[in-house]
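== Sequence entry ==
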Amino acid sequence: MVLVPFQCQGNITLIQKITFHLRLPKMSCPVFNLNPQLCCMIQGIFSTPMKVILSFSGMIGYINNMALKLIIFDLDGTLVDSSIDICHAINYALEGMNVPPITVRETIAIIGEGITRLFEKIIEIHNIPADKEFLIKRFLDHYAAHLVDNTTVYPGVEDALKSLNGYRKAVISNKREDFSERVLELLGMRKYFDLVVGSDTTAERKPSPVPIQYVLSRFETRPEEAIIVGDSNYDIDAGNAAGITTIAVTYGYRPLNLLKRADYIIDTMPEVLRIVEELSPANRR
């Protein structure tokens, strides 16, 4: 029997409060074996203090045995700002197409789903009568030669990664794996990660949960033992679908209104350290 006091405010449901407080994996009411009336109460939104008694066989032992083991990061917009170099490669690919140069702001608005989807959007927006594969090849040729000309690591990222050396760490990017590996290597960041997964590593890319499931399998880690940190709805949706805790950063490429499905929202990478400490009292490898 576990007694859980909560003060619920705003639009946070009590079931979310229970999940965060107990550090449980994302789950639905039936897992707790609650009666129907209490299940309905939990799904509601409350503004007054209340106490809920949860009865679940083995709950305490299960909670005590859980610990965060794996931290997954998105790359572009989370660890590094690569928007200028991507913008330059796009404009190189579009030379001779009678299209106005794409700005960095426009680039940020359309990237995040992989190179194929990027040029599908560009062709549609600008009504370009060009073969998609031709444009992609031109983009890749230029980008491969200028991967980090203007790409920078976001403030606080490297210090945060150093502080997380007790955990397994992986990158899941919708950038191709070889480019992701090279960007991290050229910026001196590859040493912080045990695994790098790109858009072509698995059969599907974010927002599909498949890349996350692949990483969990590689490290023999349960969903409740992992978190993902990203700047876009693709990261959050992938994490939610995989059943892991999600953390959104506000300094990246997506507006705040697209990040509200995240379990946590932070403004700087060092804030991850506080959340990690809350989720796991001891570092494990």
User: Anything to note?
Assistant: The mean pLDDT is 82. The chain has twelve helices and ten strands. The two ends are 31 Å apart (CA to CA). The chain has three domains: 2-65, 70-81+151-279, 83-145.
